[in-house]
């Protein structure tokens, strides 16, 4: 497997020439961040997200960095996926937003 440098990594999953998933990862100050994973709903449950995440983990390991991620409380599929890949809940934070005036 060939990896690029530690700059941002963007992966695309294709089936039959059709883009069905993507993954965006970064390494900042010596810590990997699995920033985004998306799979088209017609292709969900086929292991595409898992494969994208494993590739990201391989990239983090290649660069010798630990990694973190965050996910929505309303996304139960990720609550099963990420622990199965070795991620664990490390705390909680409060989400805040600010409206445009």
Describe the structure.
With 101 residues, this protein is of the alpha+beta class. 24% of the residues lie in helices and 29% in strands. The protein has 2 helices and 4 strands. It has helices at residues 48-62, 76-84, and strands spanning 9-15, 18-28, 31-39, 67-68. Strands 1-2-3-4 form a 4-stranded mixed beta sheet, covered by helices on one side. A hairpin with a 2-residue loop joins strand 1 (9-15) and strand 2. The longest helix has 15 residues, at 48-62. It is globular. The termini are far apart. The mean pLDDT is 88.
Task: Give a quick summary of the entry.
By secondary structure, the chain is an alpha+beta fold. The chain has helices at 48-62, 76-84; strands at residues 9-15, 18-28, 31-39, 67-68. Strands 1-2-3-4 form a four-stranded mixed β-sheet, covered by helices on one side.
Keywords:
single chain; 101 residues; alpha+beta; four-stranded mixed sheet; 29% strand; globular
